[in-house]
């Protein structure tokens, strides 16, 4: 349809520039490019609901974190929530990669949490022997919830903590990351829905003490779910907007081509006059 509209409108153009094929080719190429380049847009909505009722009340979590000064034998992941879950030293679907000749560790893990407030934390709680001064300085490479959305048109905080660097912090400090998780739905043109989660974050670090002395530090991720769901719906442009865009593209390109041709013609005539003046 787009090509037919352009060809019909260009009849006058071809007639006017019948002796200048370069302009014709350039104009047609630009018109086709701008006509075919528009892509479907995404419309944002907010509503209160649980969009992913088929998940069984679970959220997938992906965590990738480096602790350059803590041995892998000491690093562990603990999970707690308000449903009574209390898991120390979670190891399923996780991997520990030694860093700095074994002095540090990179922890990569995938696990699920219940859709209730809770926390998961990286600590030495599951270690056989507790170190006297565990160093909790770290870098977070990735913390993401739900399915990964690889959609360029959707900009969101799906990995808000990615790149967070706490290497200059007090080695004995605990770190609290307070997460507000926002359910997110993306629906493409075919009606297929994908479920993910964005999150906002606030953080603090502190050295904790009790009446018995200093408390073993840890890296805490305390989360709660927002009742608001963000939905991105992919839609095509309405017909009237498409037609308006085509008219604007064709008319604008025609005008620009006319201006360029006029400038070239004027310059050519001026050059001819200069040449004639030199010959005379």
Automatic annotation (TrEMBL):
Pfam families: COPIIcoated_ERV, ERGIC_N. The chain crosses the membrane at residues 239-260. One of its GO terms (cellular component) is endoplasmic reticulum membrane. Residues 27-87 form the Endoplasmic reticulum vesicle transporter N-terminal domain. Residues 96-261 form the Endoplasmic reticulum vesicle transporter C-terminal domain. One of its GO terms (biological process) is endoplasmic reticulum to Golgi vesicle-mediated transport. The keyword Glycoprotein does not apply. It is found in: Endoplasmic reticulum membrane; Endoplasmic reticulum-Golgi intermediate compartment membrane; Golgi apparatus membrane. Keywords: Endoplasmic reticulum, ER-Golgi transport, Golgi apparatus, Membrane, Transmembrane, Transmembrane helix, Transport. It is a multi-pass membrane protein. InterPro entries: Erv, Erv_C, Erv_N. Plays a role in transport between endoplasmic reticulum and Golgi. Belongs to the ERGIC family. This is Endoplasmic reticulum-Golgi intermediate compartment protein.
């Amino acid at each position: 349809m787009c090509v037919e509209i352009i060809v019909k409108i260009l009849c006058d153009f071809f007639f006017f520039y019948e002796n200048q094929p370069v302009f014709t080719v350039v104009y047609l190429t630009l018109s086709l490019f701008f006509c075919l380049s528009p892509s479907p847009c995404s419309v944002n909505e907010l509503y209160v609901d649980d969009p992913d009722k088929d998940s069984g009340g679970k959220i997938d979590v992906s965590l990738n974190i480096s602790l350059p000064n803590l041995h892998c034998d000491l690093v562990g992941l603990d999970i707690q929530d308000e449903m009574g879950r209390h898991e120390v030293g979670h190891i399923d679907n996780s991997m520990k990669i030694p860093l700095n000749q074994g002095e540090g560790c990179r922890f990569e893990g995938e696990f699920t949490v219940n859709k209730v407030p809770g926390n998961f934390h990286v600590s030495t709680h599951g270690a056989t022997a507790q170190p006297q001064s565990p160093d909790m300085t770290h870098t977070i490479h990735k913390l993401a919830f739900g399915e990964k959305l690889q959609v360029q048109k959707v900009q969101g905080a799906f990995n808000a903590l990615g790149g967070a660097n706490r290497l200059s912090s007090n080695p004995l400090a605990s770190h609290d990351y307070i997460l507000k998780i926002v359910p997110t739905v993306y629906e493409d043109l075919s009606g297929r829905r994908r479920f993910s989660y964005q999150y906002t974050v606030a953080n603090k670090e502190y050295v904790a003490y009790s009446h018995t002395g200093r408390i073993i530090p840890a890296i805490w991720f305390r989360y709660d779910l927002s009742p608001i769901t963000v939905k991105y719906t992919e839609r095509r442009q309405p017909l009237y907007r498409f037609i308006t865009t085509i008219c604007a593209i064709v008319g604008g390109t025609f005008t620009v081509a006319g201006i360029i041709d006029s400038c070239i013609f004027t310059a050519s005539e001026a050059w001819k006059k200069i040449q004639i003046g030199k010959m005379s």
